[in-house]
């Protein structure tokens, strides 16, 4: 049988990741429900989020260099293998009634380390398998890995918890992870690794080269003001929205009296909106500059998050979830296409790792503060009869709602300001610069 390649091969990889991420999302759903049932506090969710995020950001600096050096398939399958090992350990501990928050914190941190490889690896794999005029559609297709699982995983997990239990869900996760690894091994992926200089390299030279690789991505971005300015938009919006994002699961559970099926339903509608966006952008490329579609997508997403954070009923929550994920696909798809058209493939791993670090540099702050802020400061306030508590709700639900609304409003303000910035609105002009010139600069100037 001929090994799939090109767009067909990338679509095959995407389907494998959909299966894998669906299983992982089901496990995360089940573990989140277990944590809320056992402890009933928002702080553990914040701690798990910050540990995962912190590991991802810190090790993400090295991930770009590794992705550019390693065969693509190693970078693609390592995160799935690591996730499978951790899930297997969690399954054993749960069946022995020995599962603890400490292990879940460790699990979050280790998953964050390996997931740092995943995003640059798939970004570079897409660019190495496809032609530039296929980037927007392919990125829209790959968005299904975010929202396809969100469509089915929560409702499946919410329904299956009462029948096969958390242990059964983790077994499904292990099976889907295995499938994804096998598919990645099967598909043909061109090897466009960075070529190393001939001859043995001393450990000192290797260490120096490694740090030069890390600095290279930052210098590439800093020398291109429009790219850096666009990243500041993501930096600010990620910061403001982070206060509410980390506490989404406890928010819905608090609104619905710990109803796991309700949480699964709302999360499923995130998948609906994402799938709509994926299908539309896979079939229809929006006319005009991509950066305009990117910013409009950000605003739509934040408006949906405002509706989600204000609502007390499931139906408007679901509408808000659809808008949030649809806008997210619209923004992220066009952002990826812009970057992939500007950055030459051989250096994308390093540049994209630096890009992600800058965009998320401050996001750990709201993740770290949101749980304690809700539990220790806002909940006592929202337990009282005040104008805000009467408007948004009492207790944890009202407190988290306040953070979600405030973050969304500030994020919309950032996106609107971006429309007035000339550098941001002309970022796509950088695609006219020859990619061969960038590659030559990288070869002749290793300190870049």
Question: Could you characterize the architecture of this molecule?
Answer:
The protein has 19 helices and no strands. The protein has 448 residues and is an all-alpha fold. It has helices spanning 6-39, 43-69, 72-95, 101-129, 135-142, 144-160, 165-186, 203-222, 225-245, 248-255, 260-283, 290-310, 314-342, 348-359, 364-382, 387-392, 395-418, 422-425, 435-444.
Helix content: over 70%
Terminal CA distance reads 44 Å
Major sheet size, sense and barrel closure: none
* Overall average residue pLDDT: 82
* Oligomer type: single chain
Layout of secondary structure:
Elements lengths: L5 H34 L3 H27 L2 H24 L5 H29 L5 H8 L1 H17 L4 H22 L16 H20 L2 H21 L2 H8 L4 H24 L6 H21 L3 H29 L5 H12 L4 H19 L4 H6 L2 H24 L3 H4 L9 H10 L4
Helix pairs in contact: 1-4, 1-6, 1-7, 2-4, 2-8, 2-14, 2-15, 3-4, 3-7, 4-14, 5-11, 5-13, 6-11, 8-14, 9-15, 9-17, 10-17, 11-13, 12-13, 12-17, 15-17
């Amino acid at each position: 049988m001929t090994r799939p390649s090109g767009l067909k091969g990338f679509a095959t990889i995407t389907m494998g990741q959909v299966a894998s991420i669906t299983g992982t999302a089901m496990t995360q759903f089940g573990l989140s429900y277990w944590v809320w049932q056992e402890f009933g506090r928002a702080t553990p969710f914040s701690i798990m989020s910050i540990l995962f995020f912190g590991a991802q950001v810190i090790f993400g600096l090295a991930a770009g260099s590794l992705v550019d050096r390693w065969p693509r398939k190693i970078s693609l399958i390592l995160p799935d293998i690591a996730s499978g090992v951790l899930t297997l350990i969690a399954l054993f501990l749960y069946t022995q009634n020995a599962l603890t928050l400490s292990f879940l914190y460790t699990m979050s941190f280790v998953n964050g380390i390996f997931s740092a490889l995943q995003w640059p690896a798939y970004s570079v794999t897409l660019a190495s398998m496809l032609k530039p005029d296929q980037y927007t559609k392919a990125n829209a297709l790959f968005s299904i890995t975010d929202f396809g699982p969100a469509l089915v995983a929560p409702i499946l997990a919410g329904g299956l918890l009462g029948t096969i239990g958390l242990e059964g869900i983790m077994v499904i996760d292990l099976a889907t992870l295995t499938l994804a690894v096998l598919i990645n091994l099967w598909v043909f992926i061109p090897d466009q690794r960075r070529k190393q200089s001939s001859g043995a390299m001393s450990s000192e030279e290797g260490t120096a080269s490694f740090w030069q690789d890390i600095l290279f991505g930052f210098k590439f971005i800093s020398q291109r003001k429009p790219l850096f300015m666009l990243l500041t938009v993501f930096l600010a919006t990620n910061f403001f929205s982070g206060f509410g994002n980390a506490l989404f699961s406890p928010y819905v559970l608090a609104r619905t009296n710990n109803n796991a099926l309700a949480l699964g339903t709302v999360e499923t509608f995130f998948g609906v909106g994402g799938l709509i966006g994926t299908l539309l952008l896979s079939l229809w490329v929006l006319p005009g500059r991509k950066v305009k579609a990117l910013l409009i997508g950000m605003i739509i997403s934040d408006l949906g998050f405002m509706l989600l954070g204000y609502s007390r009923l499931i139906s408007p929550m679901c509408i808000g979830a659809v808008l949030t994920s649809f806008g997210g696909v619209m923004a992220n798809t066009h952002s990826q296409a812009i970057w992939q058209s500007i950055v030459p493939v051989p250096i994308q791993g390093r540049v994209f790792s630096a890009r992600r670090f800058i965009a998320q540099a401050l996001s750990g702050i709201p993740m770290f503060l949101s749980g304690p802020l809700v539990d220790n400061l806002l909940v006592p306030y929202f337990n009282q009869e005040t104008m805000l508590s009467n408007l948004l709700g009492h207790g944890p639900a009202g407190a988290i709602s306040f953070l979600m609304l405030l973050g969304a409003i500030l994020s919309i303000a950032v996106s609107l300001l971006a429309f007035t910035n000339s550098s941001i609105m002309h970022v796509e002009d950088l695609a006219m610069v020859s990619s061969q010139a960038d590659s030559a600069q990288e070869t002749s100037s290793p300190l870049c």
